[in-house]
Each structure stands twice: as C-alpha cells, then as structure tokens.
Amino acid sequence: MDYRILGPLEASHDEVVVDISGARQLTVLALLLVEANRIVPVDRLVDGVWNETPPATSRSQIHICISSLRRQLAGGGASVDTCAPGYRLRVAEGELDLHVFEARVAAAHAAVADGAHRRAVVELRSALALWRGPALAGVGSQLLRRVAAALDDRRLAVHEECLEIELAHGLGAPHDLVCELTGLVAARPRRERLLALLMIALYRVGRQAEALEEYRRARARFIGELGIEPGEELSDLYQRILVHDPALSRPAEPPPVPVRSRGPRRLPADIADFTGRRRSLERLLEVSEPQDGTAVRTVEVTGREGVGKTTLVVHAGHLLAPEFPDGQLFARLSHDGVPEDPHDILGRFLRAFGFADQDVPDGREERAETYRDHMADRRVLVVLDDALSESQVFPLLPGSSLCRVLVTSRRPLAGLPAAVRLRLTPFTEDSALELAARIAGRARIDADRDAAVALNEACGYLPLALRLAAARLASHPHWTVADVVAHLEDGSSWLDDLEDRTGVHPAYAGLTDEARRLFRLLPLVDAADFASWVGAPLLDVGVARSEALLDELADADLLVVRPHAGGTRYWMPGWILGYARRRQSEEGEESVRKAFERLLGALLHLSEKAHRLQGGEHLHLAGNGASRWELPAPLVERLVADPAGWYTRERSWVLRAVRQAAAAGFPEHAWGLAMCTVTFAESSPGALRRVGAF
Fold it and tell me: Is it true that domain 173-255 has CATH number 3.40.30.10?
C-alpha cells in the first residue's frame, strides 16, 4: 500500500487509488496514519471524529469504521490491528509519504554533517517534492487540523533550511531563489527567517534597495499589527545591507564544485506536465545516494514503445543534475530499430568534454579507455536511451562509482549488472485521465468522462499515445473527446506521427508474413477483447497456430494480453486497430470477405452449442443455410461448458456481429446469431436493451 498525507489524504495500491467512502473513515484513517505503527486509543479516535460532542454509540461506530477500513484496504495487504486500548495501522518502510519525507530530511542532515552540502540540498528538495498541498487537505476534524498545521510548519522549516543551505554555499541560482522566496514571504509575511533569506537573496543579485524596502515594509507591518519591532537578527541584517557588508556578497564558504570548467549538459528538455510514475521516480532518485564499493551504479528501465521510459529517465535526470555537477550525458542507442555504434557515441562523449578531434582515439578500446580515465574522478550522470543489447551499453559504462547510469530498453538486458531494474507498464486509469486533462484541458475531459475513458482505452493507456491524442484534441477546439476516439479507431491519416513514434511501423514490418496477415484481419473482430481461437477461422488454420501467431503479435507490442479465468484474451488498442484497418487494403476484398465468413461461421457454431446447452433445443437452426467453421470439439466443450458465462463474456461481440453480418451481405449468419440469443435473452430480459442491439 501507499499512503499520502502530505496533501489530500490518499491510499493507493499499485498506483490505483482506493476509494475511502465516508468522512468518518477518512478521519479515522488519517489519525491512524499520523500515528502509524503506534497504538491510537479509541478515545483519541472518538475525539478526532466528533470533537467535543460524541454520541453514546461513538465507540461502536469507531469499530464499524475500522471494519470498513479493513475491507477497503484489504486488496493492498494493509493490516489494522486491534491492540488495547485502541488500534494500530502497520505501515512498512516507504509506504507513508511522511516517513519518506522525514527519512530524506535525516539523510540531508547526515550529508551536512559530512560537509556534503550539495547532496543535502538534493535530499531536501526531493523531500519537499513529496508535498502535494497542505497536509491532510479536505479532512475536517478539528484535532486533525491542529496536527496538519504542525506538519505544514514542519514543511516550511525544512524549506527554510534548504534555502539557507543554498544561499550559504552558493548552490542555487540566485534569481530563482529570489522568486521562490518572494512567494514564500507573501504567504507567510511574519516569518522572520524567510524575510532574512529574501533580503540576502535580493542583495546578492544587486537589488539592495528592494532588500531594504522588504525590511521597512515588514517593520511597519510588525509595529502596526503586533505592536513590536522585528527581531534583533533581522534588524542587524538591515544594518549590514545598509553598509554593504562584504560578507553578504558571497557564500559563507566556496561552493564544493571542481575547479575545472563546467561539464556538458546534454539531457533533452524536460516536460512541464510530467504525470504519474511516482514510485518509479522515487526509485530512480535513490541512485544519487552514497554507496559502498567501487562499481558504477546502473538503473535499467524497460517497457514497450510509448510507455514513457525516456520521459521518466529524462525527468529524473533533470532532478538529479545538481548531484552530478561534472556533467550529464545522453545518447540514443538506436533509431527505428537500427543500433548506434558505441564507437561513435564514445567519440561524441569525449568531444562533449572538450576533447579536440585529433585527441579522440580511433580504436574502440582506446576510446573506451580514454573515456573511463576521464570519468574516473568525476560525478557524471549518463543516460543511455533505447538500448538493443548489452554489447551497446558495456563500452559506455564509466569505471567510477561516483557516476550513475540510467539505461532504457524495450526488453530486459539480462547481462547488464543493474543495481535497480524497473519495468514500466501502461498508465492506470487515474494517471491517464490526469495526463489528458493537463494537455487538453480539464474542463473538456471532465465534461465527458465516459468518452475520456474510451480515449484511454483507444490509446492503450500508453502515455505517448495519450499525449499525442490529447494534443490533437487541444489543437481542435471544435472536436469532442469522442471525435478523437473515432479518428483513432478509423485509422485517420494524422495518426502517422503516433504510429511512427510508438514503433508500430517497424513492429509490423518485423512480423512473419502469416502474422502480418492475421494483424490485417483482426479488425473484423468487433469486440473489446477476444479469445485465442479467433485467429484460426480468420486464417483457416489450427487453433495452436492461431495462438502462436497471436503471441507473436503480443511480443511485438501490437496486442495486449489480458489474463482471464476462462483463458488468455487479447486486446488491440484503438490507434493500433486504426493502423490495422488501413493495412487491411493489402489483403484484397475477396480474401477479407472469406475470412469474415469463416469468423462468422465459427462464432455461429459456438453460439449454437451454447444455445442448446442453455435449454434452447426448441429452436432449430438446421434449415439455416449459413456456413459453419467448426472448432475442435474438445475446445468447444471447454469454451461453452458454462453457456451463460460464455454468453455474458461474448454478448457484446455476438450482437455486433449480427449487425456486421447483415451489413456485409451474410443475412443467414445474422439471423442464426440473433436466434441463438433468444434463450439467453429470456433468462436476462434487459441484456439486449443494455447493449442497444435490437
């Protein structure tokens, strides 16, 4: 489980938010989390929920709240223990954002004690990044509001500490610090420590008059509102600025950066609307922590095209950059499936460090040795994107434990000695909706939530596909979300960029001839997902061959595998479906028609069997002239062993197939499939109306 109280209260499991229903349950959960791993007496829970006026049944109602929380959190393995005189919520290390916050602050204090002020700032900034707003926002308990106020004060104290270190040691960009402090002082105008930091920051950037004016305004406010003078520290600082104290013009000690020239900064631009991936990002940020040993620390991030690997590592790289002052290198190791030669990349890296062409060795081994020698005493972050094999990565690894390496690849690189391995999967529903809202506008996404969910489905929950589709929506104010979904599934020509960037073209080109043919025919299956047998009638092959070809498509990321109790099912995201429809013209009209007839015949064969088992012997279809395509008898028996269950699974497809068959000129198939639904419709009269079939 993941619990977040540094902002609105939130509990999630595998990045899916748990719906905690009811204000009382939220309050009880918040109180348990604030005291995580400690016993919270029932009396304190009662005070938190009802303040000064609890009802006579308050203790029993607390017990009901605890029971509800246990049910709601059970999916994530949460444990709420009964421990006299109350309850205790067990929280593992890293599950509660408050604990992570305090751990990072403690790490920063340890870094300060070691004189590693730059590392301390990285830890403090990463701790502050955990906050999403005021603590426990939206929880109305008076007791919790007092707790939240204390947490907010703690946040501000840590923020002040971070800014103080940056100013004292020259680690922050002065103008950025002025902007940051100006906003903080506006929100907390009586906070003298913040005022002092703002005055120093203004003085450092040559804005002495503004620094003095900040003091004068603060003094007038203190006298007018509180009847007191500012503290001695602030007054003394004012006098030092008046006389141009030279100690204020520079950091208290030289910044701990190398004397040599500034290293290369080759990371691609970061994105402003980075969304989701919170746990993965936290794992990546951990690579900056000190480690024992001499080996370079490597992180491998894998996942299909378009899942957001590059976006994640580039975003992490920018956050880690202050910890690697000697440079950040970036190289793409392949383009459209064609590998880059490490020899060429080594040359680019050396030139980035200022090596003249004549000083870059010709041989690969010599280049690698020169590269490792140059990196030996430097703190450099190396990002290697889209690696195809370990052989590309090994020559580019520094030899120093001071450096860090982030590697992305579609497939795991088993031979790579990675300290951390992350496998990215498509977005959750919430993350996908949030990304679309940030790009296309929250009002448009919220206005048609059902269409927005359909957009997520059509994009396969892939961040890149969602980003491009939402950008298309944003650039067409007259379009609805449903319009974009229709364009995705129809294969509109503007999808070329999406198909190129998500690797659909090379993936299709890399298939066997038979798999390409199946890919072109799969749009005939008008179903949300489908079973592994469907390829058999489409290609007129055996079921085992169909399964092998579907697995080939899934391995190429052209299908998504959906495990199901009744057997593996497959799903084709909408934009890939659109691409397959465009490719279908290569198949030939007659070939497509015959494949569709075989598919209808197989579906009719299964429907008849299920219909008879359900008690529909009184409806005879023997006179129906529609062709059948018979699947193996053992498979048919297994598929429709529970006929009602089979029909529930396939109902939408069967009803769509009725319309498809009629429109395509197969009236007998349409009639046969429609007749087979009668028995099931009698047992569930509203079923046909719910899908709008007839």
Answer: no
